[in-house]
Amino acid sequence: MSELSVNHLLGIKYITEADIQLIFETADHFKEVINRPIKKVPSLRDITIANLFFENSTRTKLSFELAEKRLSADVINFASSSSSVTKGETLIDTVNNILSMKVDMVVMRHPNPGAGIFLSKHVDASIINAGDGAHEHPTQALLDAYSIREKLGDVAGKKVVIVGDILHSRVALSNIFALQKLGAKVKVCGPKTLIPKYIEKLNVEVETNLRKALEWCDVANMLRVQNERMDISYFPTTREYTQQFGLNKAILDSLSKEIVVMHPGPINRGVEITSDVADSKQSIILEQVQNGVAIRMAVIYLLASKIKHHED
User: Fold this and answer.
1) Whole-prediction pTM value?
2) Is 1 contained in some domain?
3) Has residue 6 been placed in a domain?
4) Distance CA 247, CA 269 (A)
5) Residues in domain Aspartate/ornithine carbamoyltransferase carbamoyl-P binding (predicted)?
6) Do 250 and 264 lie in a common domain?
C-alpha cells in the first residue's frame, strides 16, 4: 500500500493499521533526512499549509511548523487568541477567509471535540487534527507508538500503561486507539475521579495501584496533570497525587524489570515524574520530540500526495 486510505487525519479512530504502518515507514525515511546536514527536501514546494491554533500549544505548533518547513511547504500561521475569532467570528468565517488564500491543507487545534470533522465537511482542503478538546490528538499518538516501535522493535504484544488524567486527555484516547490497532495491550492508571466511565467499553483495564501497573507494563506513558482543564478539584492536592501516582527513581529502580518511560510533555517536573526519571536512560521523552517532527512530516507528505493525485 503506498497511499493512505483517508484524505484527512481527523483521529486515529478513522485510520487503519495499514495507514499507521505506512506513516511509520515514511517517518523512517524522514528521520534520515532530519539527521542530514541539509535538513530540507523540496517535496511540497507547491503546497500551502495553514496552521490554525484556536488554543495555545507552543510545542505541537512548533513541531508542525518545523515539519512543514523541512518539506519546503508554504506556511501561514494563524493563532486565534490574537485574531478576530475573539471578536466573535465563527470557525466557518475564519476558514473561508483562509481558504480564499488558496490553502491546500489545514492543521487545526480547537477546544471543541469534532471541530476537525466539521471542517472537513465544509472546506475543500485536507485537514489534520492537532487536538480537538479532550477528544483526539492523532499525531501525538502516532509519534508515541512510533517511539515505542523504535525503542522495543515492535508495538504488537507490548504492554502499555497510560498513567494520570485520562478524563481530560486527548492523548490518552488517541493512544488507546493506536496501540490497540497495532496489537499492544493497554491499561490505564490514575485516580478514579480521572478515569472516564466509558473506558472499559474500549477494552482497556483500569488499575488504580501505580506499582501494580508498573510491574505489569513494558512502557509507562505518564500524562501531564492538566490543572488548567480542571474547573473542579478531582483530587485533594497535587502533593497527594504525586504520592500516589507520581513516578520517582526509587520506584523505577525497585521494579523487577526495566521499563520504558514516556511523557507527552510539557512535564510538570516533580508532579507526574521527577527530574531524575525524566532524564534517565529509561526515558524516551527527547526521542518522542524528535520523532514528532518525522511523524508530522510523514503525515503531511502522505496527505499532500493525495491532493496532488487529485489535481493530476
Assistant:
1) 0.93
2) no
3) no
4) 10
5) 8-150
6) yes
Cβ neighbour number for residue 253 with a 10 Å cutoff: 12
Q: Residue 191: which domain range? A: 138-288
Q: Which residues are annotated as a binding site?
A: 59-60, 87, 109, 137, 140, 170, 224, 265-266
Same domain (yes/no): 213, 119: no
Q: Same domain, yes or no, for 116 and 184?
A: no
List the pLDDT tens digit at each of the 312 positions of the chain: 589 999 999 999 999 999 999 999 999 999 988 888 888 888 898 999 999 998 888 889 999 999 999 999 999 998 766 555 555 567 778 778 877 888 999 999 998 899 999 999 988 899 999 999 888 999 999 999 999 999 999 999 999 999 999 998 889 999 999 999 999 999 999 999 999 988 989 999 999 999 999 999 999 999 988 765 555 567 768 888 999 999 999 999 999 999 999 999 889 999 999 999 999 999 999 999 999 999 999 999 999 998 866 665
Q: Contact, 4 vs 19, CB < 8 A?
A: yes
Residue in 212, 211, 221, 203 with CA at minimum distance from that of residue 161 = 221
Residue list, annotated binding site for L-aspartate: 87, 170, 224
Q: Where are the alpha helices (DSSP H) in 71-225?
A: 91-99, 115-122, 138-152, 170-181, 210-216
Amino acid, single-letter form, for residue 285: I
